[in-house]
Amino acid sequence: MQNTQQGSSVQPILLAQANTDPGFKVPGASAPASASSASSAAGKPVDITTPSPAAGSNGTNDTSGTGANAIEVAPVQGAPATDTSARDQLIAGAVFLVLLLVFFFARNAFSNHLVRRRVAPSSADTSGWLLFCGLGFVSAAVVLAVMNASKFLSGAITGTLLLLGVAALVGAWLTGRR
C-alpha cells in the first residue's frame, strides 16, 4: 500500500514469493536471468515498481498498460471451472424471481385472452399455467447459462430445463386451441 501523507515518499511494492503459479505469465520471465530473477532465487523480495531496462529503452513513457511491466493473465489448459460467487447467485436469483413475476402476469393475460376467444375456462387456465411453467423452465436455463456457463451449460442441466420448457410451451399451445 502507498502512504498518502504529505512529505512521505512512495513505498515500492515488494514480492516475497516466487512466480510458480502456472495461471499467470509475467512478461519478460522467459528472458535471460536478470537481477529480479536472481534476487527471487536468492530469497530476497523483488521490487516490481522499478521499471525494467526493456521498458525504458525506447525513451517513451508507456502508460497503456501493455509495456514490459504489464502482467498478462493466461489461463491454463484444462483449468477447473471456478465456483460462482454468492453475489452472482443473488443477482441471478433476483433476475429469475422478477422474470417469474412477469410470467405470472403474462399467464393471467394469456388465460383471459383465451377465454375471450371462446376457449373453455378450464382449458384456458391449464394453458396459462403450462405457459408459465414453460417460460419458467426456459428462463431458468438461460439464467443458469449466463450465471456460469462453464458449470451449468451442459446437456444434463440446461438440456433438461430446455426440454421441459419446450414441452410445456407445446402443451400450452395444444391446450389453448379450440
User: What ranges have pLDDT less than 50 throughout 5 or more consecutive residues?
Assistant: none
From the N-terminal CA to the C-terminal CA, the straight-line distance is 72 Å
The sequence of SSEs as H and E is EEHEEHHHH
Query: What is the tally of beta strands?
Result: 4
Shape: elongated
The helix count comes to 5
Quick structural gist:
The chain is mainly alpha-helical and 178 residues long.
Structure description:
The chain has 178 residues and is mainly alpha-helical. The protein has 5 helices and 4 strands. A two-stranded antiparallel ribbon has the order 1-3. Strands 2-4 form a two-stranded antiparallel ribbon. The longest helix has 31 residues, at 86-116. The mean pLDDT is 76.
Please supply descriptive tags for the structure shown above.
single chain, 178 residues, mainly alpha, two-stranded antiparallel ribbon, two-stranded antiparallel sheet, elongated
What is the fold's blueprint, element by element?
Layout: E1 14-15, E2 24-25, H1 35-41, E3 46-47, E4 72-73, H2 86-116, H3 121-147, H4 149-152, H5 155-175
Antiparallel strand pairs: 1-3, 2-4
Helix pairs in contact: 2-3, 3-5
